[in-house]
Amino acid sequence: MSKRDIEILEFKDAKRAARTLYRAFDNDDVAKYTSRHLENDPVKRKEVDLQLYEAYIVSHIMKGIVFGIKGDNFEENDCYETVSLWVKPDSGALDDYITLIRSGFAKLAWNTGSEGRRRVFKVLFNVLHDNYHEIMKIDPNEENTWTLVYLGSIPESRGKGNVRKMFDYVFNHYIDPMNANTYLESSAVRNLPIYEKFGFRAVSDIWLGDKEDPVDKARMDIMIRGPDGSEWKYLKESREKFGYIIPEVSVAK
C-alpha cells in the first residue's frame, strides 16, 4: 500500500493520529476554548489537548470510522498527513459509559480538572449534541446521516490535494451509495468555501461560551450536504428558522 493511499485506522494508530489533529488545529478557536483554563501552563495544556484528540479518535475507531493518509514523510513526522473522523448512521451513542471509559475520556476528565470538564462535557458535548438534533429533526432522512467530526491536515501537507482525496474516497465508497446526508461543524469561517466545493452548504451558526465575550468563545458553522452531493432539501427553511446570516466568505449562497 502506498503512503498516499487512504487507510482505515486502528487502535495502534491513535497516538499518531492525535498528533495530526493537534498540529492541524493548533490555532483553532474550539481547541483554544476547551483548554483555555490551562493557558498559563503550556505543557499541561498540550498534554490535555492530545488526550482529548486521542479520546475522540479511539471512540470513533470503536463506534465510527477513522481514515488517515500517511504521506511521504510519515516516519519523520511521527503523525499522519491527514486524518478524518466520522460518525456513521449505525454508530449509536458515543458518550455511553463504556465508550467514555475505554476511549480515554475518563482519564481526560480527571486530568483537565473541574473547569476543563465543564468546557468539554457540559458545554462542547451538549452544544454539539443538542444542535445536531435541533437542526436535523426536520428531515425524515435524519437517521441516514454521516457526521464529519474532524478533518485535519498538518501544515506542511496542505495544498497536496489530501482533502479532496479524502472526501472523494468517503463519498464514493460509503456515503453516496447509502443515499445519505453529510453533516459537519466548521470551526473556522474561512473554511466554508473549501467545504462548499464538495456540496456542503452552511445552515446555522452555534457558539461555545458567550458569543459576546471578546476572547472566551468559539463559533462553529453547521454545514450539510444532501444525498449524492445535492443541496439539502431543508436548507432555506432551516436558515430562516435559525436566522442564519451567511458569512461574506461564502461563495455558494
TrEMBL record:
<dbReference type="InterPro" id="IPR016181">
    <property type="entry name" value="Acyl_CoA_acyltransferase"/>
</dbReference>
<protein>
    <recommendedName>
        <fullName>N-acetyltransferase domain-containing protein</fullName>
    </recommendedName>
</protein>
<dbReference type="InterPro" id="IPR052523">
    <property type="entry name" value="Trichothecene_AcTrans"/>
</dbReference>
